[in-house]
Amino acid sequence: MQLQTDLLQEARRQAEICNACRYCEGYCSVFPALHAERAFSDGALTQLANLCHNCRGCFYACQYTAPHEFDLNLPQALANVRQESWEDLAFPRAAGKAFQKNGVLIAVAAVLGFALLFWAARASGSQGGEGFYAVLSHNAMVAIFLPAFLFPLVSIGVSLRRYWRRVEAGPFSAAHLVVAVKQAAHMKDLKGGHGDGCNFEDEDRFSHARRLAHQAVMYGFLPCFAATSVATLMHYALAMPAPYGLLSLPKLLGVSGGLLLVLGCAGMIRLKLRSDRALGARGAFGGEIAFVGLLGVVGFSGLVLFALGQTAAMPLLLALHLGAVLAFFLLMPFTKMAHGFYRLAALAVNARN
């Protein structure tokens, strides 16, 4: 299944004009890659679209935007191709398209549905365990979440393989991946060509707010994931099962990561609500808000559970938190969370070239 021809044709038209103009050459990673092309294949446009961080600086600097007859809007053209590529490359494809069209409804239904299942299972979960395990046994949690963790890995792996074939990229080295990881970690392309930030939130005003919000989400999610990994290691390798104390490594990582995650998600939603939707992918706003909201609910419900974990509300809060976490993992390949993997792949391809 190929991307919509009209979206590719419009992106190709605009890329050819930008290639002739070259005013925005130093703005971000997109323009050096764009200017290296002589003709823009579907794969080349997909690669350019996934390099683009939608900072919108090129739009406000462009002399060929409407009402000029060229009517350039490169951020939207690339966003449309990028969005369609995520849907087309998703595994399974139907799930990717469904989430983008009904993201909020699917996210809410998944969280509440899984929470109800966990709430119903609590009667059979108590087997003399302590803390959360008094509600749902450790073995039951592993049986539920291990497949839920493996599924997105397989799905995203298939999607990245499809992407690599689409953009016709050859083998790459560890050095290329290191360059890509460094650029992603520093959010290099969200700093703008001159380091003043991007123009996402308020027309041509430069701001680092979007980069900081992205970094808060990324550096909040990683400690949360590390908290689970450390707790797993402590349980199986060190024979130190939960619950863990306030100053334990899993708790310190989880609480600090959760706070950053909630702050970052709140910041991203605020910026999206203030942004000009005409410069983003058409029809993608609901799916983007659903993803950020779901990720924020995971962090917030975890913090509330930590704060009220010794009260009578704990079983209900645990069911809601586990429902949010399970929904997040199962929906991950079809939400904008997948864009991090595609961007990393695009940066690796760019480093290789």
From TrEMBL:
Keyword Cell membrane listed: no
Keyword Transmembrane helix listed: yes
TM helices/strands, residue ranges: 103-121, 141-160, 216-237, 249-269, 289-308, 314-334
Keywords: Membrane, Transmembrane, Transmembrane helix
Top-level taxonomic group: Bacteria
NCBIfam families in UniProt: CitB
Name under which the protein is recorded: Tricarballylate utilization 4Fe-4S protein TcuB
